[in-house]
Amino acid sequence: MIKPAFHSAKRHQLLLGLSAAFVSAQLIAQSSPKIEEVLVTGDPMQRSSVDTVSSISIIPAEQMEAMNIRDLYDLLLRNPNVNAAREDKFSVRGISNEGIGPGGTGRPTVSVFIDGARQPGRGVANTWDLRQIEFYRGPQSTAFGPGSLAGAVVVQSNAPSSEEYALNLKAGVSNYGGSEAGIVVGGPIIGDLAFRYAGETNQSDGEVTNITRDDDNWQARKRYMQRFKLGWQGQSWYSAILTYQDNKLREGSEYQPTAFGHERYATDNELGYFNDSSELWVLNQTAALNEQLSLSLILSQTENHNHRRGDYDISAEDGGYFINIVDTENESQELRLSYRSETLRGVIGLYHAEDTLFGSSHSQDLRYNLSGVQARADADLAAARDTSTSAIYGEADWDFRQDFTLTLGIRYEKNRAENFSSFIVTGADPVVPLLDITLPLDLGPVLGLVLDSEATAPSGDEVLLPKLALSYQMSDSISSFISFSQGYRAGSVDFVSEDESPSYGPEYTNNLDVGVKWQSGNWRLAATAFYIDYSDMQIGVRVDAAVFRTDNAGKAKSEGLELEFNGELGAGFSLFGGLGYVETAFLEYEDDGVNYAGNHFPNAPRHTANLGLNWQYGPYFATATVSQASNSFTDRENSNSLRADSRQLLGARLGYQDERYGIELYGQNLTDEYYITDRFSSESLGIDALYVGDPLEYGLRLHYSY
């Protein structure tokens, strides 16, 4: 039995708010021109936003510019029921993209695609020269496959044009030594063959000073992106686009000690940095077989190299350091056959992917406690995984009556993986705890007898995932839907756990969405209520400094509501915004004698909201935005001392843009609000750290277009 999503008082307040927003928008829209339809390009069905039977946010380039969104992280902070703890750690409907807790070797729960290629890298989604970003909330396993249990993010860049040449330039400066530059150039090469090149770089000295190493640029950040696209449509029935993208990111160590968060001081005695580089290739071909049938072939390859070095205890003390290196590669092939008639639309697809992962972690001078014996240990961890995924899927919309549409979807997926891991102690010197003295006596061979391990283990599972939805066109401007779908994340094997390689099973979700969409004149409003029934949730647990394991919790839930709207107010003013509410809880989960039932998911704020007011008068423009999120826990224990802060971020943009020249002033976090987005505490590592959100930023940007 589905439980009610809200208590009575909360439900009444939400209904009143929805009614007020709906009536106000309808009155405004009576004299407004009709809003333009938006195509949801990431969905294999290629529906319009009104016909999509899920909760989805579509953020076009114009709105990203108005909000001063420069990368995916900026957008994650300003979207209903989406919350970012860090750039590569975020949640959708309260479900973290990397799962619950540290450790674990499974896939993410939210997939990120760039122009059709699955992308695991960090900092890969610059918004320079994008057409739109699509946020899919809720399970997308039937459509997007592996790693989409909680949702998907689809990034679409601008396509080459064979009709005209284009040149766009930008340059800017900001506080903290920030600078940026970008270029877009494209147009026809010969006939219907066209190209488009986009390049961008931005950097900042950062706001954190390392007082131990006397480094004012401790969190300095440099990002580089280039994208090249080649497109051809030689015949009306065939088109092809080849995309290449290269991203590089280097930034300083993220965590700060709790005692110096407000001062934005770091105390690491060891050098820390984060390097990430990604490359992707995509070839997307489409052939129209006749007026009703079309065939698409999508071939993609992505590579990511991640190199991180950091201080274990982030202090001035000599607590050891680590060097983590992870290399991943994905190759995928997807064949789609689409059919469209007056009353029936559908797609059948075949999907196959090969994933490889190799990771290594070197620990130096790590304090280790084994049965009361303390030592400074050097150790190497290596892990590898080769995964193959094959699937067949299908989805169809059938207009069986004038105002009713039935959606049926199904996906059969088979996952197989070979997992390898090894852990080797390369040296260990005993420590006298009371005197904190390290003795020059190598205990490496002794510890190695207990801790050294090497294991190879297979894993795999098969799954059949259904999707069922019913849409009802209530009037020319109002439509509604109810949908049921299943989400899935494959099981795997923990790389290292006390001389073993224990396996853990897949996790599943049953999801119910009920939504209403209203579109009239130049206004659009969408509201969705949802309930997610979680079973066998994969939860990562840190055993000690070097050992992790993954549990399958019994049951959990997530339930809530999303509301989004946008439209024209008149006199050059437009409004856009959204509200999100989510309630999460473990229902059946006990570990090591501790019952976590009733606790909330980490990094799952109950309330999120954003609002933007835009003004345009000829070439002059101005925008004011605000985004909010309530506080949230950061651990499964729901420790009050480890909460992430609530936040209210104000932004503004003011400028001039004619057909060629533009100038703008912008600001983010205008009140310079201090807020913690993530916490980390580990007794075994002797660390109590926090991650602080970005401070006040202001800058000047110039544009030129031809």
From TrEMBL:
Pfam families linked: Plug, TonB_dep_Rec_b-barrel
Domain TonB-dependent receptor plug: 51-152
Alphabetized UniProt keyword annotations: Cell outer membrane, Ion transport, Iron, Iron transport, Membrane, Receptor, TonB box, Transmembrane, Transmembrane beta strand, Transport
Primary site of residence: membrane
Sequence ranges assigned to domain TonB-dependent receptor-like beta-barrel in this UniProt record: 245-670
Membrane topology field: Multi-pass membrane protein
Annotated compartments: Cell outer membrane
Alphabetical GO biological process terms: iron ion transport
GO cellular component, one term: cell outer membrane
Family: Belongs to the TonB-dependent receptor family.
Designated name of the protein: TonB-dependent receptor
Lineage, broadest ranks: Bacteria, Pseudomonadati, Pseudomonadota, Gammaproteobacteria, Cellvibrionales
